[in-house]
Write a structure and sequence with these properties.
alpha+beta, 2 domains, two-stranded antiparallel sheet, elongated
Amino acid sequence: MAIPLRYNLRSLRVRWHSTLATMLGIALVVLVFILVRALAHGIESTYINTGDVRNLIVLRKGSTAESSSQITREEARRVKYLDGIARNGRGEPLASAEMIVLILLDRINGSGSANVLVRGVSDVAMELRPQIRITEGRMLQPGLHECLVSRRIADRFAHCRVGDSFQSGRITWHVVGIFDAQRTAYESEIWIDVDEARSSFKRDFYGSVLIRPVDSAAAEQLKQRMLTDKLLSLKVVSETDYYREQTQSAELFRFLASFLAVIMSVGAAFAAMNTMYAAVGARTREIGTLRVLGFRRSQIYMSFLLESVVLALLGGVVGCVISLPLNLLSSGTFSQTTFAEVAFQFRVTPLMMAKGIAFALVMGVLGGLLPARLAARKPVLDALRAV
């Protein structure tokens, strides 16, 4: 017959001071574990949600991102008028030559400044990105140093509301609209006219050309055409695939989550072990009584190990509950790909919480192995002397 579970639960309740301290320690470890993984998942989701499966992005051969790509004006013009590119209602090809630059803006809370991504776009950029819509103000007009600011940037940086102006170099940019990018990477951008961008930032090239083929067959033909054209040193990738490759920013946080989890779990396991050792020392008479009543060493071992696991489970559940308010919390972090601040939302998923609880159970098992072994190996006579 196994030792009743209520015996272990009652023991945890009686020693509520040490139980609470150990439980909160494990909860903190689980919270940090979930927090960093939610951060990485949020950044990854931001990039994965970006892009349209119908679009292709044209870059310089050998480049891995728009920031390192250089496409001449002649190459951009040749790409724009290739056969197979769809056209809008005005008869214009759905091809947007674009470039990105970094500017420094002050944070709205006065905590300093950060790099912000500025994208130079053409007049068909919005048509190529149907998920983006202007929520305040109007579309920018070329030649007037006007810009559109994403809602996330407007919330985090000063002078980025409609009607505001900010300085970048010798140019003053006027905010005429706020756009909602639907939790995509564009939420970390400010948009200006691409030709104004080239002139203002003294660039004689574009970074990419975003195009929309008429169909999948035309997409393959365009890829082959640009790869074999000796006048074009370009490569073509799906827009969605391009942004999936930009998820390298999340790798650092995955590594950080694993590193912190290992370091903090050692401390939490020792805390659980210390609590269980104290429990064994304080319950010498109980252990002797259990042996006299006929309970075997293995049953006592499993009873104390189960007590440690229950303690860790409670801590894991508390850590998961504390992490719930973080779900969909908006924040920003530095991107290794663009060297700018990227806006994202923490994503706490059920699978992530399940891993957090499993992680807590592992700490409970590691913390309870040696104390449970000590309890099971106590000689009956030594235990009864304390009675």
